[in-house]
Amino acid sequence: MALEQLDLFGYEIPKPVVKTKKVKPAVKPIVIKEEIIVEEIKPKEKSKRGRKSYKEMYNSADLINVPDDETLDKKLYYSISEVAEWFRVNPSLLRFWESEFTILQPRKNKKGDRLFRKEDIKNLVLIYYLLRNKKYSIEGAKDYLKNNKTTATLHQQLTATLNNCKAFLLELKANLNS
Q: What is the C-alpha to C-alpha distance for residues 69 and 80, in angstroms, rounded to an integer?
């Protein structure tokens, strides 16, 4: 017979209720034909917040998706969100580059929204090329643009042409294999 604890007035003291959380198992079993196969525990991926590593920046530097000149001529102005999406960067980075580089001067409407012209997008491609592909610092890119803008434009165009050729050849190779 278990002894019950009573309070001063003779009433039974309720036992404390312990709430337990349902814990998901770290290993998830899969049942296939009456057999239990245990999945391996995958390490958590690092958070996508904060600054990118140099390796990630280098790998994503070739992934810009700026349309060609014919497509850019279809519209007179492009919004900052469209341009940021092409470069796969945040719009805040484009605003920062605008404040740092004098060659970037997008128009602004009465509301203050930035509207990028074809020339601004070309300058952004050049700045992106210097900062992300060539790994220049902002000060170094400014100096380089002051002294060698034509050379930088030529190098950037050559790189873009070679990347287009590479993409074409890879596509051709993939079609030959299939």
A: 18
